[in-house]
UniProtKB/TrEMBL annotation:
Protein name (Swiss-Prot/TrEMBL): ADL110Wp
Record field: transmembrane: 451-472
Claim: Transferase is one of the keywords in the record: no
GO biological process: GPI anchor biosynthetic process
Transmembrane as UniProt keyword: yes
Domain of life: Eukaryota
Alphabetical keyword list: Membrane, Transmembrane, Transmembrane helix
Length: 473
């Protein structure tokens, strides 16, 4: 290669390195309407008649203004509201990260890909945490890629999730391993003891399940936000697969799978978060007692007679007709003659959506007070936006959100995985004193295809090699 061509290649590598790195660190500023909780419908100064030059100029102004603002901001904790003001709800929703595992037989190239993917996900999540300072962060289930892993690997992925994706301290996890490990020092949860304790509570005082919480904005004083993990089918399995082992380790490392948090109950601006493990709502189930407990949780929830607005967080979306979202209704059961695990024949194997009857029952129990509400779900990696309205007979109909005013809006969070573009969802709730009601807005902030991430990380290395070669030349 001639020196002139080498110079051109070096310049190209320099441009790609600068452009890709500038993008991955400032990309939210390119989408100010979608990547901020303010969530404007459009950029001010632009309309349908704006010329291309006007659009470029306006977007450039917004971009540089937003970048300057972010450079001067270092806070990751939500600002304290003015005295007497109702705090805004600023929830960052993360859909289905599905962290993969590494085994002794895993090829080295695949190991490198998994390592890089962890930091891809971590970059997206931590960038948005610093930018947004959310009050709540909800991970919509499927934290891991498979529920068919041992306790030690489950723990290892939890450590990676905590360190690499969320950038949080792992001191609590280390303490949990110290109290639950085998002779080799590897994490191991006593699921049999968990089963005995679970059954004792189920037959006695159900309040021992710790379903009720009030005004929780952080789990610990040092936290910057309230982290909520939702059970996904790859975390604990569908009801035909879920065992005491699955639930014992999940609850030990991530907390309860069903609970509610009531905020400002005895005020005109009361609202609540309901976290629901909807994988254990219908069967046939391997452990039917899990389904019984979940329905008893919902009955206790409805008996609270809560007067405010509800935000429901769960994994599997509610029933809707085919064509409304990417995932159509589909439920599968273990077939006759299933030789691998014959005891599962006839049990629930998978479901894209909840069944119509279960959907109606849950919606009537959670939104029993008639107030409009929000549902956030995962599972469908493409994401979706659906409106639900209640008929006089108690049934619910799903339709596009623009069809008519909805009683409940279901927002399926598009996946944060690289192949889907590294998306996160932004849900903002603000209370309007004039109407004594909550107003909710939602947007999806996209990152980029993983090729951009690879380019940003590899091009500086290529550039250094080219510069070294050019210098030697």
């Amino acid at each position: 290669m001639s020196q002139q061509n080498l110079k051109k290649l070096t310049i190209l590598a320099l441009v790609l390195a600068l452009a890709s790195n500038l993008y991955i660190y400032t990309y939210p500023s390119l989408f100010p309407c979608r990547c901020s909780f303010e969530q404007q419908n459009a950029l001010q100064g632009l309309d349908d008649n704006s010329t291309l030059a006007q659009r470029v100029w306006c977007r450039s102004q917004y971009y540089f203004s937003d970048v300057t603002k972010q450079l001067g901001s270092t806070h990751t904790r939500a600002a304290t509201p003015e005295q007497g003001a109702v705090p805004e709800v600023r929830l960052l929703a993360i859909g289905d990260p599905q962290i993969n595992g590494i085994w002794p037989t895993t090829p080295y190239l695949r190991r490198l890909e998994i390592f890089i993917n962890d930091y891809f996900l971590g970059h997206v999540i931590q960038r948005m945490l610093r930018r947004l300072a959310p009050t709540h962060v909800a991970v919509m289930g499927d934290l891991f890629s498979s529920q068919w892993i041992g306790d030690s690997e489950y723990y290892n992925r939890t450590m990676r999730y905590t360190r690499r994706l969320l950038g949080r301290s792992d001191k609590l996890l280390q303490a949990q391993r110290d109290e639950s490990h085998d002779a080799a020092g590897e994490y191991n949860r006593d699921w049999q003891q968990y089963g005995r304790d679970y059954e004792a509570v189920r037959q006695g005082d159900l309040t021992m399940f710790s379903w009720h919480r009030e005004n929780a904005w952080r789990w610990a004083p040092e936290d910057d936000y309230l982290l909520i993990n939702i059970t996904g089918n790859h975390d604990v399995g569908y009801s035909g697969d879920t065992t005491y082992q699955h639930m014992a380790r999940y609850k030990h490392l991530f907390g309860e799978d069903n609970y509610w948090i009531e905020y400002d109950r005895d005020t005109d601006h009361a609202w609540r978060v309901v976290v629901l493990n909807d994988l254990l709502l219908e069967g046939p189930a391997l452990q039917p007692e899990f389904i019984d407990t979940t329905w008893r949780f919902l009955e206790h929830l409805a008996a609270r007679d809560f007067p405010g607005t509800t935000v429901l967080l769960t994994h599997v979306p509610f029933h809707k007709p085919a064509g409304l979202c990417h995932d159509n209704p589909e439920t599968r059961y273990y077939p006759p003659g299933y030789e691998r695990e014959p005891y599962k024949v006839g049990l629930l194997r998978s479901q894209n959506l909840l069944s119509p009857d279960v959907s109606d029952r849950v919606l009537n129990l959670v939104f029993a007070n008639g107030k409009p509400g929000i549902i956030l779900t995962g599972h469908d990696h493409e994401g979706c936006d659906t409106a639900y309205t209640r008929a006089p007979d108690g049934s619910w109909a799903a339709q596009p959100p623009s069809a008519q005013p909805a009683h409940v809006r279901e927002l399926t969070v598009r996946s944060v995985m690289a192949q889907y573009g590294g998306n996160v969802g932004l849900l903002r709730g603000s209370f309007d004193p004039a109407t004594a009601s909550w107003r909710w807005t939602y947007s999806v902030c996209p990152f980029a295809h993983q090729a951009v991430w690879y380019c940003a990380k590899l091009m500086p290395v290529v550039l250094i090699l080219l510069l070294s070669t050019l210098y030697v030349w």
